[in-house]
Design brief:
mainly alpha
Length: about 110
């Protein structure tokens, strides 16, 4: 993948984190676990950006992205045996992650 594709995919992954639950679910095929895909997609492109393209971002922008990554690493480990819709809609982890993602998008503009 070239730099432009990676940056676009990273932006898409961050945007997907910022969407409301119904929009997040609609962003992926129905055969995937949306919560997993949201986190894995962001993590993959975050790591690629940090490793290869961090110079394209200001120190403040990197701090915001690092904060999101740290927050994701703190995901509660409790057994969430409810539907994805309930998880994405009702759990404070996902609500806070949307807020952090929206703030990051504004700082990356």
């Amino acid at each position: 993948m070239n730099k432009e594709v990676i940056i676009n995919n990273f932006s898409r992954s961050l945007k997907n984190l910022s969407l409301e639950a119904d929009e997040q679910i609609a962003s992926f095929p129905n055969f995937v676990v949306v919560t997993d895909e949201l986190l894995l997609d962001f993590n993959h492109f975050y790591e690629v950006i940090k490793e290869n393209y961090s110079g394209l971002f200001s120190e403040e922008q990197i701090k915001v992205l690092d904060h999101i990554n740290f927050y994701i690493d703190q995901i509660p480990s409790e057994d969430l045996s409810i539907s994805e819709i309930d998880e994405l809609t009702n759990y404070s982890f996902w609500k806070q992650l949307r807020i952090l993602s929206r703030e990051a998008i504004l700082k990356l503009e």
